[in-house]
Design brief:
Layout: E1 7-16, E2 19-25, H1 38-48, E3 70-75, E4 84-91, E5 98-99, H2 105-117, E6 130-138, E7 143-152, E8 155-156, E9 174-179, E10 200-204, E11 208-217, E12 219-225, H3 237-241, H4 244-260, E13 278-284, E14 288-289, E15 295-296, E16 303-309, E17 312-313, H5 319-329, H6 335-339, E18 347-352, E19 355-366, E20 369-379, E21 381-391
Parallel strand pairs: 2-3, 4-6, 12-13, 16-18
Antiparallel strand pairs: 1-2, 1-21, 3-4, 4-5, 6-7, 7-8, 7-9, 9-20, 10-11, 11-12, 13-16, 14-15, 16-17, 18-19, 19-20
Helix pairs in contact: 2-5
Length: about 400
C-alpha cells in the first residue's frame, strides 16, 4: 500500500505561564481546518497526539497533562480596536475531543509575543525599546486581554529575571490585564454570580452537600472549603491525582455545579464540557512545602488555593482560575474572601502546589450586582521551537 507524505504546517511551540502549546496562524492551516468543525478538531488532536489510550502523547506534541495538551490559533482581529483574535483549544488526552468552551490564561501570555513576532502588529507601534501593548480579542469567551510585552532592539524580549513558580527558569515579565472578565449571560442570577448568591449550598447525590462560591470571572469556577472535603488546603498533586475516589468525587461536584451555574442542562452533558467549569478548594494561610521542596511561610501568602483542570489537580494554577481567585477574593463574603481573612482586598497572594502567585482585581457593586472591571497579574512566555509540525496526510 502506498502512503502519501505527511502534511507540513507552519507552527510555533511556546510556553506561556505554566502551560505550553502549539501556536498556529489561521492562514497557515489547511483550508478545511481554518474554520470550526470536525476537520479542525481532527487536525489539532493529531498534532497533540490524541486520543492516546496510553496517556503519554508519544506520537504527538502534547505532554499528556492538561497544561501541555493545548493549541492556539491566531488570526487578524474580527473586532474593532484589537490587534489579533486568539482562539484556544484544550485537547483531551484519552478521548477524541477538543474543548472550545473557555480560555487559557497562561497561554494568553504568549499571544502578545507571538503576534508581534509574526507580523500582526503594525511595526510603527512596536517601540525600539520599551513596552508594546497588544490588544487581544479572546474569541472563545468574547473578552479583551491587554498584554504588555517588553521589547529590546525591536525584538520581543524573552529572557529576564522574572521568576514564576511552576516554571524552572526565569524569563522576561509580561503584565496581563483581563478586562471585564466576568461572564455576561450564562446562568440565571447575574453576570458574575450565576445563581445571584455569593455562597450557595450545592447538593451532590452520593457525595454530600457543600458550601460553594460559584463565579464566572476569568473562567467559570466552583470554589469549596478545603476542610469540607477533608483536606488542609496544602495538598500537592499526588494526594489528589493518585486517589481515584477523590477524582470521581470532584467530577461529580463539577458536573452538578455546572448544571447549577446554567452551563449545561443535565449531568450527562458534563463529559462534553471538560474544560469548564473548574473546581477549586481554598483554605486559610498556613506554612507548607511546595512541590519543588521550598518552604513557604504562612506570612508570605493570604490563602491557599488548589484547582483541578481536565480532571486532575493542576501542578500550579491556571491563569484564568487565578483571575477567578483574585476576583472572588476582592468581594467580601465569598469563600475565597473569607479564606483570605475577609474584608475588602484589591489583591491577594495565594499558595498553590508549585509556590505562590499574586493577582489583583478591581470589583464594585453596581445596582446591587457585583461587577469586575479588570484583573491583573504577571506571567512570562518563551518560544521553545518554531518551524513546522507534521501530520499524516488524510488527517484533515
Amino acid at each position: 500500500m502506498t502512503y502519501l507524505p505527511q502534511l507540513r504546517i507552519p507552527a510555533t511551540y511556546m510556553r506561556g505561564g505554566t502551560s505550553k502549546g502549539v501556536f498556529f496562524r489561521q492562514q497557515d492551516l489547511p483550508f478545511a481546518a481554518q474554520k470550526p468543525g470536525p476537520a479542525r478538531d481532527a487536525l489539532l488532536m493529531r498534532v497533540i497526539g490524541s486520543p492516546d489510550p496510553y496517556g503519554k502523547h508519544t506520537d504527538g506534541m502534547g505532554g499528556a497533562t492538561s497544561s501541555t495538551s493545548k493549541c492556539v490559533i491566531i488570526s487578524a482581529p474580527s473586532v474593532p480596536d484589537h490587534d489579533v483574535d486568539y482562539l484556544y483549544g484544550q485537547v483531551s488526552i484519552d478521548t477524541a475531543f477538543v474543548d472550545w468552551s473557555g480560555n487559557c490564561g497562561n497561554l494568553s501570555t504568549a499571544v502578545g509575543p507571538f503576534a508581534i513576532s509574526n507580523g500582526f502588529i503594525d511595526p510603527t507601534r512596536v517601540p525600539r525599546n520599551g513596552i508594546c501593548t497588544v490588544r487581544i480579542w479572546q474569541a472563545n469567551i468574547g473578552k479583551t486581554i491587554l498584554a504588555h510585552v517588553p521589547v529590546v532592539d525591536g525584538q520581543v524580549q524573552e529572557i529576564g529575571d522574572f521568576e514564576l513558580d511552576g516554571v524552572t527558569f526565569p524569563a522576561a515579565e509580561i503584565a496581563l490585564e483581563f478586562l471585564d472578565p466576568s461572564d455576561d449571560g450564562e446562568g440565571e442570577g447575574g453576570s458574575m454570580f450565576p445563581t445571584g448568591n455569593l455562597v450557595d449550598t450545592l447538593d451532590v447525590p452520593g457525595v454530600g452537600s457543600f458550601q460553594v462560591t460559584m463565579i464566572s470571572a476569568g473562567i467559570p469556577t466552583i470554589f469549596l472549603n478545603a476542610a469540607d472535603l477533608g483536606y488542609t488546603g496544602t495538598e500537592l498533586q499526588p494526594a489528589i491525582n493518585e486517589d481515584k475516589a477523590a477524582l470521581a468525587r470532584f467530577e461529580a461536584i463539577r458536573a452538578h455545579g455546572a448544571v447549577r451555574m446554567g452551563l449545561i442542562d443535565s449531568i450527562d452533558q458534563a463529559a462534553t464540557r471538560q474544560h469548564t467549569p473548574k473546581v477549586a478548594f481554598v483554605a486559610p494561610a498556613q506554612d507548607y512545602v511546595s512541590s519543588s521542596g521550598r518552604q513557604i511561610a504562612a506570612g508570605d501568602i493570604d490563602l491557599h488555593a488548589r484547582a483541578l483542570s481536565m480532571g486532575k489537580l493542576h501542578h500550579a494554577m491556571m491563569g484564568t482560575a487565578a483571575v477567578a481567585i483574585g476576583t472572588a477574593a476582592s468581594i467580601p463574603g465569598t469563600l475565597v474572601n473569607l479564606a483570605a481573612g475577609g474584608g475588602e482586598r484589591g489583591a491577594v497572594t495565594f499558595g498553590h502546589p508549585s509556590g505562590t502567585l499574586r493577582v489583583g482585581a478591581e470589583a464594585a457593586q453596581v445596582d446591587g450586582q457585583w461587577t469586575v472591571t479588570k484583573a491583573i497579574m504577571s506571567r512570562s512566555a518563551r518560544v521553545l521551537m518554531e518551524g513546522a509540525v507534521r501530520v499524516p496526510a488524510g488527517t484533515v
